[in-house]
Specification:
Order of helices and strands of chain A: HHHEEHHHHHHHH
Oligomer: heterodimer
Largest sheet of chain A: 2 strands, antiparallel
CATH class of the largest domain in chain B: Alpha Beta
Number of domains of chain B: 2
Helix content of chain B: 25-40%
Strand order of the largest sheet of chain A: 1-2
Distance between the termini of chain A: 13 Å
Structural class of chain B: alpha+beta
CATH superfamily of chain A: Formate dehydrogenase/DMSO reductase domain
CATH class of chain A: Mainly Alpha
Number of helices of chain B: 7
Strand content of chain A: under 5%
Largest interface: A-B, 75 and 73 residues
Number of strands of chain A: 2
Chain lengths: 311, 258
């Protein structure tokens, strides 16, 4: 079929922004959880900031999603309806008025967003109370931190899986979009923590440099996932799909893709890291690299979605 | 489930009159739209929220670009046995009826538009006035009262036939044999095979050539088939990220891991 016969959901920039913030929140939360499990006292700044960022970044998420709906007042239908139909898909589970469709990433994602938000709120509240001189509820922090970490991974990856489960030519043979979005979430979560810590100053440089080492590793994964995505799409062989890929790599979206997503978002920050600017954790350098990673993390999601939706 | 109902569209009988398109608009009370000049008799270019039946016109050319044959095909929602829109829908608004057709419950749909991009045939359209997704229902109100869809009733050449799926499939196979005897070597059914792509289409077609001549995908794929593989790759990358974080934050060089 000529790809022209297919339709596009035309999800606007609001949705790109949600995908970016959701991934960033999930990534920051996972980093904070792993750092706190390994050495909560030593990485206190990273853990605090990671949990705060995860909570703040997820607050706009539901709002962006609801505003984008055709009938925003029906947002709860994502999870429940008062009279559910019986035949709503092969992967549907229903309990009373609630439903979950395992093969619909949007359905699963709505539940993951709820689960993540609850964990992010509880952990951020615990961190806040501790900051105010109270005692941390260790059990709560541990349980909500680990469960929220799984939800965080899910939140970062599911938009990519969702795109892969559409009929759009650029997405339907891509397979690597979930993996790509997940590692973009990890790199942007790490970069967000590093950016704020280096702007605030005064933190232990050693732990910041470890965070930047992790973020650089996530960037390498990001580059690998991007390459695998392009190879998978290229190898699918259909002309419609090749045309869709050409839009991204050589067409109207190529400048944003190559300059924004690849050079600014991956190559320059990695070069700064390898050049030793971040190893010494000079705050200015770290802040610069982190800001570039964040810009690139948004652009890579934006440009792939825009090129895939263009007809 | 009641016996599956289906629609059989035989393009060899289609004369491109568009009575089906008009009957669909009238029965379903779909508002008029500005014409789109597509360079052929086809109007509109695509299914829209106000066009559920669409007669497509295709000019088949030979290798030299010379006109070879003119094709007409009255296109409609395929009511796939494995429907991309239905599996995608996060609200349960899209459901399968007892007759095997696929409908969108307008009181539940919240306008997320996932189904629009998940349809392998570009059928589902978003209605900006109601904020919901819409498509052909096989005239759900009519078929529940034994009337048959408006398009099939209006078709003057019986190019569009409606009935029980198993009966129609038998007639369709007979018709292919007849056409082959008459010299239409490439006559073939599209979507009739319930073991084929998407578990079979409940609106299936008799085509006079390859599906691609009619703009149809040779092997339509259920997009949700990707979910498991894509999720496994995501889990793999999550493991790598987790491992990377463990290595990066491992306390090895001071204070004995304090």
């Amino acid at each position: 079929m000529g790809p022209g016969l297919l339709k596009s959901a035309d999800w606007p920039l609001l949705i790109d922004l949600y995908f970016f913030l959701g991934g960033l929140a999930g990534g920051a939360f996972v980093i904070a959880t792993i750092a706190s499990l390994l050495d909560a006292r030593r990485y206190r700044d990273i853990v605090r900031m990671g949990y705060y960022i995860a909570f703040l970044a997820i607050i706009p998420g539901p709002i962006l999603l609801i505003v984008d709906l055709g009938v925003p007042t029906r947002f709860l239908h994502m999870m429940m309806v008062s009279k559910p139909s019986l035949e709503i898909g092969m992967s549907a589970l229903t309990v009373g008025p609630f439903h979950l469709k395992l093969l619909s990433p949007m359905s699963a994602g709505a539940w993951a967003l709820l689960g993540f938000s609850v964990c992010a709120f509880l952990v951020a509240l615990d961190v806040f109370l501790e900051d105010r001189g109270g005692r941390s509820m260790r059990i709560l922090r541990l349980v909500a931190g680990v469960i929220g970490g799984f939800f965080g991974f899910f939140l970062a990856a599911y938009p990519g899986v969702l795109l892969g489960a559409t009929a759009r030519p650029l997405f339907i043979s891509a397979h690597w979009l979930g993996a790509l979005f997940l590692v973009v979430g990890a790199s942007s979560g790490g970069a967000a923590i590093a950016l704020i810590l280096s702007l605030l100053g005064g933190q232990a440089r050693e732990s910041l440099s470890r965070l930047m080492r992790f973020t650089a590793f996530a960037l390498v994964l990001q580059l690998a996932a991007l390459v695998l995505f392009i190879i998978a799409v290229q190898m699918s062989g259909s002309t419609g799909i090749a045309q869709a890929l050409a839009k991204l790599l050589a067409g109207p979206y190529s400048l944003t893709f190559w300059l924004g997503a690849v050079v600014v978002g991956i190559v320059v920050p990695l070069a700064l890291q390898l050049g030793g600017g971040i190893k010494k954790a000079a705050p200015g350098m770290t802040a610069l690299a982190s800001a570039l990673i964040l810009i690139g993390g948004f652009l890579v999601k934006y440009v792939i979605i825009a090129a895939g939706q263009a007809t | 489930m009641a016996r599956t109902l289906a629609m059989f569209t035989d393009v060899s009988l289609c004369i491109g009159c568009r009575a089906c398109q008009v009957a669909c608009k009238q029965w379903n009370q779909l508002a008029p739209e500005e014409p789109e000049w597509t360079g052929s008799y086809q109007n509109h270019a695509h299914f829209t929220d106000k066009t559920y039946r669409l007669v497509r016109f295709f000019e088949e050319t030979d290798a030299k670009g010379q006109m070879k044959q003119w094709h007409m095909m009255s296109d409609v929602c395929k009511h796939c046995a494995q429907a991309g829109c239905l599996e995608a829908c996060p609200t349960g608004a899209i459901y399968r009826t007892e007759y095997g057709t696929v409908n969108i419950n307008q009181d539940i749909c919240n306008g997320c538009r996932y189904c629009v991009s998940a349809c392998p045939f570009g059928v589902v359209a978003f209605n900006h006035d109601t904020g919901t997704a819409t498509k052909c229902t096989f005239c759900n109100d009519r078929i529940h009262n034994g009337l048959g869809p408006a398009c099939a009733k209006a078709c003057p050449t019986e190019s569009i036939r409606f009935g029980f799926r198993d009966e129609l499939a038998g007639k369709a196979k007979q018709r292919v044999e007849e056409l082959k005897k008459l010299g239409y070597k490439d006559a073939q059914l599209y979507g009739e095979d319930t073991n084929g792509a998407l578990g079979g289409l409940n609106a299936f077609f008799l085509l006079l050539g390859k599906p691609s001549i009619y703009g149809l995908p040779d092997k339509p794929k259920l997009p949700q088939r990707n979910v498991i593989a894509d999720s496994l790759l995501s889990i793999g990358s999550a493991l790598l990220v987790g491992l990377g974080a463990l290595v990066a934050f491992r306390s090895r060089d001071d204070k004995g891991g304090a």
